[in-house]
Amino acid sequence: MKSNELIEIFAARCPVCVMVRSTLENILSDERLDKIFEEAATRQYCRELTFSTCVQLMMMVVARIRPSVNAAYKSAAAEIAVSVNSVYNKLKGIEPAVSERLVRDTAADLAAVIDQMGACVEGPLSGREVRILDGNHLAGTEHRIQELRQLGAAALPGQTIPILDPQRRLIEDVIVWEDGHSSERALLGQVLPRVKSKQCWIGDRAYCTKMFLFGIAKRNAHFVIRQHAQLQGELIGRRSKAGRCDSGMVYEQKLRIRGEGTEELIVRRITIERDKPTKDGETEIHILTNLPGTVTALKVAEAYRHRWTIETAFQDVTTTLRCEINTLGYPDAALFGFSIALLLYNVLSVVQAALRDSQTETRTIERNVSMYAIADEISGVWRGMEIAVPSEVWTEVYAGLTAKQLVSKLRSLARKANLALYTTHKWSPKRPQPKRISGNRGNHVATQRILNKRKPH
Q: Is 377 within 8 Å of 16 (Cβ atoms)?
């Protein structure tokens, strides 16, 4: 049987897996990956082991197709001319600039695909380009490095600030930092160059610094950022009532923030008096924005609530993919693995967009396409696809497609998918836990004896 015929069989039985493979082949050619490395790396260089090989190995681990880097290496050892130790040495030296460039460049390609598809969704502020940012400290790793073996404390391999484009549901960019103990505020100087005119940036109070707010305003951009207690200003005029949102009453008042010298910034302070305190016991939340008055206080409050969109993305990256590989203790290797997870998250977002776009008869559930269900199928089917169809065949069929041609392929495949297999269950509030009557947790009971006491219906 010819390879193209085998691809058609997979397309009929597992179209979503073929969608993922075709998208990866299109944006991750070996030549493209190695060019990214050559342009961004300053310390490392490629000889027998190429950067594209490292990406492919790490992708197998992050997508849960292989359980470890060593297992991924063994599965491809015949095509790799170096030892597994050389692979680990390469991974621990991949520079942050390379990881950032990989996410940024591939996200730009995938954004073009979504735009070509016309599959953008409504953002937090209608008609405005929004970016949401939040920090993420990578979890502690195993103490495999010699210097860590006598330490009881968790070994933190680094931290990141991903930047989410909520209209396209893509992680547009990321800032990675090897010092896992440093504050997010130490990285704000790297965020500002990424701010573009007329964008609106949404963040929590960790990003509420004068340098950041003034920097955004100077770039003719806007912000919706929760006020930090350390940033004080001068309230101007009376506070006016704006109405109610889901969590409480909303008020608005102007605030003057003084910078260096005679520099000052007058912003709108949106206050939400909460019906219920936050988990930290706070009854009021203050949000600062320089958006014009045409954007009402209620819209600003609602836009800030969309900040949790990036938390959902973090959850998908953590639970659906394997973004924190605890066996990779060296910071650069761990950060590279996290960046690969962001890349795969973006690819799965494109697949979700194609499913939403093509399944026109099920528009009512367009927001409930499960990334977990897609990733689960990929991890189960991918090895069979690798055995049945040689890599060069996938490359030949999909690598050279334009964005328009790729969209056509994705739509054709999406129409073959049974969307019911990939939709989430409708959310409903959790039932309160019943009061325990069994005494100490250390005791035990026989389940069958309990069931024997059940009254018949």
A: yes
